[in-house]
Design goal:
There is one protein chain. By secondary structure, the chain is mainly alpha-helical. It has five helices and two strands, in the order H-E-E-H-H-H-H. Strands 1-2 form a two-stranded antiparallel ribbon. Strand 1 and strand 2 form a beta hairpin. Keywords: Membrane, Transmembrane, Transmembrane helix. This is DUF1648 domain-containing protein. It holds the Pfam family DUF1648.
Length: 168
């Protein structure tokens, strides 16, 4: 099994476990939003909260890989990459290899995004389960900042991985 698919399966399983944990521990009234200082500024029902997180999870974990697969069909019209790279990777001899590699890379990125969702779901569930009405502001900042930093590194890695060889 390719590494991106394995990472996606592991993080998706963890996400489902976190949802089950949320169902088990959340009270009826749940924090739905936090302001910039980490204080709860909106509430929702447990059902609405869980429905939102199920939908978000499905959109990310199922939707992005499906959209990637659809975008990779055909001649690359729906793939946004430098033209030289597109000419190289969508040549008939390399197109299938590109599709497999890129699908795996995108599944890895979805796994990374699922980790962010897990952190946010976990924090929000913890606030609800403990009866707190705030979190230190930096907790969300660190989670989002780390995700953005790793995303930037991921993009650089993709640009290098899909750059055509100099002799091409």
């Amino acid at each position: 099994m390719r590494s991106g698919r394995l990472a996606l399966l592991v993080t998706t399983t963890a996400y489902v476990v976190a949802l089950v944990w949320s169902v088990a521990v959340l009270p009826e009234r749940v924090a739905a939003h936090f302001d910039a200082s980490g204080r709860v500024d909106a509430w929702s029902s447990r059902t609405s909260f869980l429905l939102l997180w199920v939908v978000v999870g499905l959109v990310v974990v199922v939707g992005v890989p499906v959209l990637t697969r659809l975008a990779l069909r055909g001649d690359g019209t729906w793939v946004n990459m430098p033209q030289a790279s597109k000419d190289h990777w969508f040549a008939p001899a390399r197109r299938d290899e590109f599709r497999v590699r890129f699908q795996d890379d995108m599944e890895g990125f979805v796994a990374l995004t699922t980790v962010l969702l897990l952190v946010l779901l976990g924090l929000t569930t913890w606030v609800g389960a403990t009866g707190r009405e705030d979190l230190p502001w930096w907790v969300f900042a660190v989670a989002i900042g780390a995700y953005l930093a790793v995303t930037a590194l991921w993009v650089v890695r993709l640009l290098r991985a899909y750059r055509p060889p100099p002799d091409a």
